Amino acid sequence: MPSRRYSVFAIAREALRQHQGWNRAWTSPEPRDRYKVVIVGAGGHGLATAYYLGRNFGITDVAVIEKGWLGGGNTGRNTTIIRSNYLQDPSAAIYDKALKLYETLSQDLNYNVMFSPRGLIMLAQTEHEVRGYRRTVHANTLQGVATEWIDARRVKQLVPIINIDGPRYPVLGGLYQARGGTARHDAVAWGYARACSDMGMHIIQNCEVTGIETENGQVRAVNTAKGRIGCDKLALVVAGHSSQLAAMAGFRLPIESVPLQAMVSEPIKPCMDVVVMANTVHGYMSQSDKGEMVIGGGTDSYNAFTQRGSWHHIEETVRALIETFPMISRLKMLRQWGGIVDMTGDRSPILSATPVGGIFVNCGWGTGGFKAIPGSGWAMAELVAQGRPGPLAAAFGMNRFREGRFIDESVAAGVAH
Amino acid sequence: MLILLCPYCGVKAEETELSPGGEAHLKRIGPDGTAEEFEAYLFARKNLKGVHFERWRHAYGCGKWFLAARDTHTMQVYGTYKAQTAHATDEIVANARQARPEWVPDWPQASEAVVG
Ligand SMILES: Cc1cc2nc3c(=O)[nH]c(=O)nc-3n(C[C@H](O)[C@H](O)[C@H](O)COP(=O)(O)OP(=O)(O)OC[C@H]3O[C@@H](n4cnc5c(N)ncnc54)[C@H](O)[C@@H]3O)c2cc1C
Ligand SMILES: [Zn+2]
């Protein structure tokens, strides 16, 4: 049964009926024998791919297969920073498409994703960063993405709790994107899931994909914990497990999986209404609507699949952030966790056809793919539906590593966010 | 914290003393390598979830590069060995197989090599 439209009238009506009339936001069906399109991974990118396949191409014979619960991977573990101030043109195009879609996503999905364009500052704390960010501002200007260089005084006005005179990490200025901000990570996954379910798509949770069946170089089916599921087309959208799924289909990806960590403090009164990233020290912070300080750190530097990460990285992040935000030194941390991020050599994603006919991959978003979810889903749906990339995905093919066409974002995205 | 025994100086080194160097036993490609071979050498890592052979440098110790066999899923260390080695020792293979009976080394085994 399609879920009921959410509105102020629906809330009023339900308030009078003890809230008995709400339907489940999505169904939990048993899988059919085959689908036109099977998507592996019900993170934000997999769900958004399904949504835009239905909305933009009318393809609704779709299953999204998830080994855990939907949004339980990196999507539900990220620190929700949204921005589009990247350096290279193909990146600016896809990240800014995503940002524009985020701006109206709650209305599109009829689901409040709590998009909060509160503004975002990337601190420059070394001369090198000053030059790097000024260059990014110039690039963004040419791309039509509004960003500006602000001096340390302006940073202090926007972020009164900041210490700009730290002995080790003085604040020299910052790259400011007023349209940047945050959104509620779970709501993004849930909103897309509900919209997909309403279109008749199947979201199949607790169902690990264990094998991929191919015949004459063409995909036939996936083997799962709930049996064999046939498909015409298969999209692999599994972030940190992309190499594992690719191996099932018999090819390799230029990806390495590493843990990335984050933590939240106890809730406190509102004290910071912008997102601040400090890339020199691999730390970034924002305040959630509940009042918690949400803090992200750096990646581990070796491959691992433990959703945990190394303790010393947390220590490094916190030690450095305390100099820049002295008041957080007294906060208690409530929770710490990790996600397995999929890193490529040029720190840009892969949206691509593969050596196997009918199989497409979307991966390599690494430490920064939450902000890209709507744009990535849009571009991936185009790729899967038409069998070839549209303008947004064209530069992100996996052959770029063979051909030397890198989209180098190590300055803009080499750090964790 | 990850602790690896440096096979050169014998120090049990903590992660913060070490620099990771990525997948071990990669074959360097020469000037006449194809684009595919260069791509494989530079980018297409195995990225295994399980037994992984990798390079480490005892950066804040003796400074030497060595190799380790580590499980990327459980973080168990199966052993460390010197860098000038074609593949892991029999003892390390045995340790790994004890933890993961389904795992088989992807290089020819001594017995097979003799027969072949
Ligand atoms: C700590 C942390 C902080 C971050 N902060 C930010 C940030 O501030 N801003 C930002 O833009 N990005 C951030 N990111 C990155 C962002 O979270 C990811 O790029 C993005 O969420 C990836 O989404 P996804 O849908 O590709 O992957 P995921 O959400 O990980 O979804 C992949 C899904 O595939 C499933 N799966 C895997 N293997 C199988 C299988 N065999 N069968 C079936 N299902 C399978 C997994 O269970 C998972 O649910 C952060 C990441 C982390 C870990
Ligand atoms: Zn040593």
UniProtKB/TrEMBL annotation, chain A:
Its EC number is 1.5.3.24. It is found in: Cytoplasm. This is Sarcosine oxidase subunit beta. Residues 36-81 form the Rhodanese domain. PROSITE patterns: RHODANESE_3. The lineage of its organism: Bacteria, Pseudomonadati, Pseudomonadota, Alphaproteobacteria, Rhodobacterales. Keywords: Cytoplasm, FAD, Flavoprotein, FMN, Nucleotide-binding, Oxidoreductase. It catalyses: sarcosine + (6S)-5,6,7,8-tetrahydrofolate + O2 = (6R)-5,10-methylene-5,6,7,8-tetrahydrofolate + glycine + H2O2; sarcosine + O2 + H2O = formaldehyde + glycine + H2O2. InterPro entries: FAD-dep_OxRdtase, FAD/NAD-bd_sf, Rhodanese-like_dom, SoxB. The keyword Oxidoreductase applies. Its cofactor is FAD; FMN. PANTHER family: FAD-DEPENDENT OXIDOREDUCTASE DOMAIN-CONTAINING PROTEIN 1 (PTHR13847:SF287), SARCOSINE DEHYDROGENASE-RELATED (PTHR13847). Belongs to the SoxB family.
TrEMBL record, chain B:
Pfam families: SoxD. It comes from the Bacteria. InterPro entries: SoxD (IPR006279), SoxD_sf (IPR038561). This is Sarcosine oxidase subunit delta. The lineage of its organism: Bacteria, Pseudomonadati, Pseudomonadota, Alphaproteobacteria, Rhodobacterales.
